[in-house]
Amino acid sequence: MTDNIESALTARGIELPTPAAPVASYVPAVEAGGLLYISGQVSMSDGKLITGRLGDDMSLEEGQQAAKACALMIAAQIKKAAGSLDRVDRIVKLGVFVNSTAEYTDHPKVANGCSDMMAVIFGAGGQHARSAVGVSSLPLGVAVEVDAIIALKPE
Question: Which of 16, 48, 83, 122 has the fewest CB atoms within 10 Å, measured from its CB?
Answer without folding.
Answer: 48
